[in-house]
Amino acid sequence: MIRALLSDDLPRSRVLTLVLLGIVLCLALAPFLFPGVRTVDTAARICIFIVLVASYDLLIGFTGIVSFAHTMFFGFGAYGVAFGLIHLDRSFWAMGLGAAGGALTAACVAIVIGLFSLRVRAIFFAMITLAVASAVAVLFSQLSSITGGEDGLTFKLPRVLGPAFKFGTETLDGRLFGVRLNGKLLAYYLVFFSAVLLFLGLLRLVNSPFGRVLKAIRENEFRAEAIGYPVIQYRVAASCISAITAACAGALYAIWLRYVGPETTLSMEIMINVLLMVVIGGMGTLYGAIVGAAVFVLAQNYLRNLMGAAATLMQDIPILPQFLSADRWLLWLGVLFVLSVYFFPSGVVGRLRRS
Amino acid sequence: MSSEPILELVGVSTDIGQYHILRGVDLNVPANTVTMLLGRNGAGKTTTLRSIMGHWRCHEGRIFFDGVDITKMPTAEIARAGIGYVPEHMGIFSDLTVEENMRLAAIQGPIDSARLDWIFGVFPALKTFWRSAAGTLSGGQKQMLSIARAMIEERKLYLIDEPTKGLAPAIVTTMARALNDLKRQGAAILLVEQNFAVAQALGDYSDVMDDGRIVWSGAMSRLSENAELQQKLMGLSLAGS
Amino acid sequence: MTAAPEPTPTIVRPTSSEQIAPYTPLALVVLLICVGYLAIGIPSSWLTLTLSGLAMGMMYFIMATGLTLVFGLMDVINFGHGAFISLGAFVGVTVLLELGVFSESPTLWLNIAAVLLSIAAAMAVCSIAGWGFERLVVRPVYGSHLNQILVTMGGLIIAEQLIIVFWGPEEIYFTRPEMLKGSADLFGATIEKFRLLVVSLGLGMFAMMRWILRQTKIGLIVRAGVEDREMVMALGYRLRLVFIGVFIAGSALAGFGGAIWGMYQEVITAHMGNQAMVLVFIVVIIGGLGSVEGCFLGALMVGLMQNYVGFLAPKFALLSNIGLMVAILIWRPMGMIPVVKAK
Question: Residues of B with CB below 8 A from C232's CB?
Fold first, then answer.
């Protein structure tokens, strides 16, 4: 059963299996294991970023092309949900329609960009996506009448997903293992199970014949072309599927935050975070997304505290505390990132699989 | 061979990707002679020249030029040791003018005008198009430029890859004359050639390659006299004359 | 004298369209200026916008030219180029503030000297940083675009964070030297004095680069290397050294651009370089990767477009440049002045 769910692509390493199992179990039981607003929020973010990073891995790891527009697609999904819930009504139907609209937009834009830049040279893709994504981010923050501008949009979810919605009050007295049964809990599980579904879908995709062609193209573009595969079509299709999945992740993010804004969904900063996650986790494995997202989000939330403590310890030494100040965590992740590209290009997962 | 070799390849093997292109090439180019490198398409002639220049590194064997081991030298050092190289695709800088192409090839300093006059004598077209972009030249003119570029300064050895490919007969004659001039000046030439008539006219020695090895080596005259040998070594297509 | 008849060179006269072709990119810039005139309608505003567009274009040219040459020569795309722009701005502005006496003096030439000194300092620091960046970050990843993008992006993150470590996370506001503040009147149009300085610096830089590339041996090597690296080495030039030189020069130019960009805006942040990179990428793509002339014309077009559209419909300024890029790529998929690669 598990083999079928994972599309026959098992982690293939005992340590990796344990790590993945640990992460997935923690995420599945997060509201019960770590009840607390901040920890559950961290868990939901990890779920969402796993999907976002996995969809990015489909592009970078399986086709070898680098896109800087991935957060743009993420944003499309998020804003889609927001528009649906604001302009239609507060229903699941509107939420789904909004997400679908976002995904459709993402797909169309991905196809257009892909046809434009992949036709010439894969290197153009990186630059053009960077330019387009920045333009869209600027546009979204300026069209304030539609998008709420820099402030973004807040909206209400369907009542069932709100904290005010309680269930099981008669049978369980509204609690399960001491955790309040409310809409927030349902929202978490909506995010979690959607993430699982999307991840398994991607896993199925990369292990399908389609995925194998992508790998062949990555290994040797000319040979794949010579055998007769339409390389550009395959690449455009991959970038399109990746964009749709990113939009779905964006929709989940919007649902979880009940807010969208350019900073949280469209910014270059998130793009760079995704890049760090995919490389640290391991490109071309999909499982890398799970490890990468978990490590990164935890580091983002907790490394700062650690570094802040270290900086206080070294207060008396000149300059050094500057390097260790809590806000400089990105510096060290950047160093880790460069080192991992050099020394373990296959990331944590590749490393574990090899040993 | 009678004279001291200027270039010596000992058991050179070169891989490109996972393909073994050269499988132990042993080759001698005696000084002051023209050595022809013959063989079918895909026999490894171009790869041999590229391996000498260090464009592709051989993983086995040694290459000696003028008594010095150049196997691991950077390409630029190999060239500066005194090798002029004319690649198969001619290597013309089409964005640069003919003049700039020539100036770039003169690595020791400004162009020597006497030598330039001699080159203009051999290839008058280059004088006509001196200030035009090299990209606007015809195929034959480009080939002339690529040879002229190698000739602009004296070199001990010239590696020339198919200079007559696709050229009109009249230009082939010009080309042959230029190579003859070079030889008379005392340079050694290793020439890859498909045109057997040209090979016969120019060559002192000849080495025939097949499947990444030298399969026959000897005086050109011995090969040109023996039609049966030609056929055996190079197949029907080349034994025309 | 000769036995064989000399092959008579057949001179094929290029058709008129072929003769015009090299000048079309230049014509496009002129066309853009004309369209701008028609769309804006007010001559004085148009003149102001055109001049500031040109000034902006010059800055983009200076920032982008190193990137395009580095790519042309070694097929290396440096996504960390923006870090040098930021670094140049910080060094330049720091020096400018240190030179307070010069820049507060009411003498024009002392003010200009202060600006030039700051630029020189920015270029010097960026050259050293560029040398280190090439050695530590870029050198191990030649030949692989994917790794180049990743590693140089990582380099960018580190460099931005280091700037924050040394200069602090806050934006730095400052004012330009006394005599370069305010604007001058020219044919009824108000033109900021600093922009005039920028335009002349940019033109000077372009002229100098053209001279180096056209007239010197090193320029020949660079231009030839962009086309066919292998052949340049086979002629006997150590391209590796030339490339390091170009990388360092490109970083220094980014520092130059960053310094004047910072002075132009009168505020600097660690991220400003990476923000500028968006338009820098558009410039090099429009121009044709590897072409300095293309980069110059592309930069002018982007600068003009940014200013015209910024005046007519401010929200769509950046989007209009994306549109420009798309239009150019439909017309010429490799950019306005495509670089011929031997292989």
Answer: 104
